[in-house]
Each structure stands twice: as C-alpha cells, then as structure tokens.
Specification:
single chain, alpha/beta, disordered N terminus, binds ligand SAJ, 430 residues, globular, Rossmann fold
Length: 430
C-alpha cells in the first residue's frame, strides 16, 4: 500500500460504500473530496461525524477529517481520480436505472482534464461504463476518450465494490478487486490507484466482464439462498428439521448449503439479479425463479406467523428484529420489516417489535398500534415470539427464558426449542 500526499481524489456519493471508501483513501494520505447531493450529509461529515452505522467508521472519519485529508461538498472540484459510488436502483419494471451514474459522470465532465482516471464502482448493468465513457466523450470533445480512436487523454474503468455491511472497512482492504478497463491501459491506471489501499489481489479485465462479474456474484448468492429457502418449505411439509438436514448435508465434502430465512433483503442481492434478467429475460429462468422463491418465502412466513398468532388469541406477540440481516441497523428492503409491518397492520397493538438497532419504529408501523420494546420486556410479556433476524442478542437468549413460548423461528437460532405445549404445532420449521 503506497502513500502519496499529492494525489487528489473525488468520491461521488457518500453512502454505505462511498463514505468508507473515501475515508480509507484519505487514510493513505491522499486529499479526498467527498461529494453528496444532500447538504445535511456534507455538513455531518465536515463536522467529523458519520450519518451511517458501520463498524469503526466513526473513528476513521473523525480522524481523517481532523487531519484535513477528507472533506465533503455538494460542489465538485478538479482531481486526479474520480470514484463514482452512487445508487443504481431498479425501476418499477425491474429494469436498472443508471440515472444517478450518468448525472455523476456529467458533473465529472465539467472538471475533467488530461491524465485523469474515472472509476465507476456502483453495481451497474453490463455496458454502463461504456455509456459513461460515451457521455464524457460527448461533453468533452476537447479531450480524447479511451477506446474510440488513437490514444486517450483520460482513463475510464469499472471496479465493483464487494464489501459486506458490518465488515466494510476490513473487506475494502482485504478483498480481491476486479478492475475492468475500457482499454487495457485504462485498467492499468485504475489498478495503480487501488494498489494504494487494497491488500487483496487486484485482477484486471475489460469493463463489460467486470460489470457482469459483480452481477454474477450477487445472483449466485441469491440462487443459493433460494435453494435453502425452497428446502425449508419442503422440510416443513415433510415434518423434518431443515436446519438439521442442512447441517448433515453440509458434511458432504462438496455440498455447502446456505441458510434459509424470511426472504432476502438489502439493496444488493434482492436487486442485482434483476439486472441480469432484464438484460436477457429469455435465458435467465433460474435467476428469475430464485428471486421469486426468495420473495415468496417472505409471503409464506407472513401466512405462517398470522396462523400462529390467530391460534393464540389475545396474547402479545414479539417480532424479533427488523434489520435485513444480523447485527446491523440497515432496514432497507428488509423482509423482517415487511413481515412485522404486515402483522402489525393485521393484529395492531398485540404486535410488539424488538429491535435493539432502532430507537423508534419506522414509518411502516405508523397508526398500527405496534410498539417497540426491549428484549427483557419481550421475554416477560410475550407468549408468542417470531424470530425474523438472527441478531447475536436474540441468539444468546437461553432456553430456560424461552421455555413454554410459542415460537416461529425463521432463522434457526433456537433449534433447541422444545416442542410447544398448546396449540399444535408449537414450533414451526421455517
Ligand atoms: N441471507 C440468507 N441466508 C444466507 C445468507 C444471507 O437468508 O445464508 C439473507 C440475509 O439475511 C440478507 C440477504 O440474504 O437478508 C443478503 O445478505 P448477505 O449477507 O448475503 O449480503 P449483503 O446484501 O449484505 O451483501 C452482498 C454481498 N455479496 C455476496 O456475498 C455475493 C457483498 O459482498 C456485496 O458487496 C454486497 O452484496 C453488494 O453491495 O453488492
């Protein structure tokens, strides 16, 4: 990892990826300017604070801001390297929307100069980096764009982020990176940049292969989770414990089944596979079906939970967790939140939410009558418990504190739960 005080870097988009990336680059000694469209985000960062929760991010940001290596603005400035890390949501028809990427590229065009490197990190449909290059070429005809003729005055590359929320600062440095250049020369320029702060291997390719690699990684995980979710339904039908079956099957040297759950959440795995499906609907029945299986699991859990609540009239029900996965405060596209909100709509004030990572209930619970309670209150007052997130704090509740509860455990964290007494069945396998 090289340090160079001279390098000026602009990071566009200061979200879950952009801010940690900006802070890690700033730590190498580069001068980093983070750009965000929200003045409140800019003000928070300039005061040395963070607007998102991520392990160790607050200390890192306050340090690099205090040293003057990182500052934020809504206004772009010239730099040597531009990193675009803005969202790429999908539209209602599930086709990807690269509007934010093109907007960011438009602002880069205004300050672009000879020798600069423009890197796209946002998860993007195949061909987006070429579209960025085309846009820059159109807006800056005074500069030679890469891959469109002889020579080039600047470089354009794609390098997807691969970090796992909760481990972002570690994985930003340790994970291998795939760097796809518009031309091999572009890839080498981007490679020199990532070598400054990445300890993992940096592998170069072309931009289209790098774009498809990112989508492939998340689709792979989605398909594998769908397999586990489908198994959980079959096991339920068969009256078999799916967690035990998976544990046993995984003893085979070439079998490694993931964990079933209440569905797939977050802003990546539940979204990115659609980028492949919308690019080639005819050839993606498996990827599409996996998405449908995972979304269907959420509906299945809502139905099972509602049946359990109806079988226990009048009693308080604890929905354990709202986050899209364990030990984080991110509720985006969360199946847990969707399930808890659907139950709150239906069962009102009987529904209590336990979410140690929330200080108040999200909007979805407005006017439902549902309330936020802590773990101890749930154990004391809720005879029915629906486990939606495998937070460590839930996992650590010992059997004697759960004894006699009616439990629907969608995460398999309480597999030691004894069969409930009334009514039957007391513990559901899903
Ligand atoms: N999940 C299961 N069962 C499992 C594993 C996960 O139900 O066995 C669920 C989780 O509960 C969650 C969802 O899947 O709701 C997604 O969680 P995750 O931990 O699989 O992934 P993310 O969304 O936090 O991050 C993913 C990662 N991609 C891969 O592992 C291939 C990460 O490396 C990417 O950087 C990130 O997407 C991204 O930004 O694309």
């Amino acid at each position: 990892m090289v340090s160079d005080v001279e390098l000026n870097v602009v990071v566009l988009g200061l979200g879950y990826i952009g801010l940690p990336t900006a802070a890690v680059i700033a730590r190498t000694g580069a001068k980093v300017l983070g750009i965000d469209v929200h003045q409140s985000v800019v003000d928070t960062i300039n005061s040395g604070k963070v607007h998102i929760e991520e392990v160790d991010l607050d200390g890192l940001v306050s340090g690099v801001v205090a040293r003057g290596s990182l500052r934020a603005s809504i206004q772009i400035e010239p730099a040597d390297v531009f990193v675009i890390a803005v969202p790429t949501p999908f539209s209602d028809d599930r086709s990807p929307n690269i509007g934010y990427v093109l907007k960011a590229a438009t602002s880069v065009a205004a300050v672009l100069k000879t020798g600069d490197t423009v890197i796209l990190e946002s998860t993007s449909p195949v061909g987006t980096t070429e579209q960025v290059r085309d846009l820059l070429a159109k807006l800056r005809p005074d500069l030679r764009a890469p891959g469109l003729g002889d020579g080039a005055d600047y470089a354009v590359a794609y390098c997807p982020e691969r970090v796992l929320p909760g481990r972002i600062l570690v994985e930003l440095i340790d994970n291998d990176r795939v760097i796809g250049g518009i031309t091999p020369r572009c890839a080498r320029k981007a490679l020199a940049f990532y070598r400054r702060f990445v300890r993992g291997a940096c592998v170069t390719t072309n931009s289209r292969a790098a774009e498809m690699t990112k989508l492939t990684e998340n689709a792979f995980r989605d398909v594998n989770i769908a397999f586990a979710n489908e198994l959980s339904l079959v096991a339920d039908t068969m009256g078999v414990d799916v967690w035990e079956v998976i544990r046993l099957a995984n003893r085979h040297p070439r079998v490694n089944i993931l964990q079933p759950g209440p569905g797939v959440g977050g802003h990546c795995i539940a979204v990115d596979p659609w980028f492949l499906v919308s690019a080639d609907p005819k050839n993606t029945p498996l990827i599409r079906t996996a998405r449908e299986v995972n979304d269907g699991k959420t509906e299945h859990v809502i139905a099972r939970a509602a049946a359990l609540i109806e079988a226990n009239p009048g009693v308080a029900v604890a929905c354990m967790g709202l986050a899209f996965k364990a030990n984080i405060d991110d509720f985006r596209e969360s199946p847990a939140l969707k399930i808890a909100a659907a139950l709150a709509q239906r069962f009102g004030s009987r529904v209590r939410i336990v979410e140690p990572y929330a200080s108040s209930l999200p909007e979805a619970f407005d006017r439902t009558g549902a309330t936020l309670i802590d773990v101890d209150t749930a154990i004391e007052r809720c005879p029915v418990m629906i486990v939606l997130v495998d937070h460590d704090i839930f996992r650590s509740i010992p059997l004697e504190e759960r004894d006699g509860k009616q439990v629907l455990d969608t995460r398999g964290i309480w597999t030691d739960q004894p069969p409930a007494r009334t009514p039957q069945p007391l513990r559901l396998a899903v």
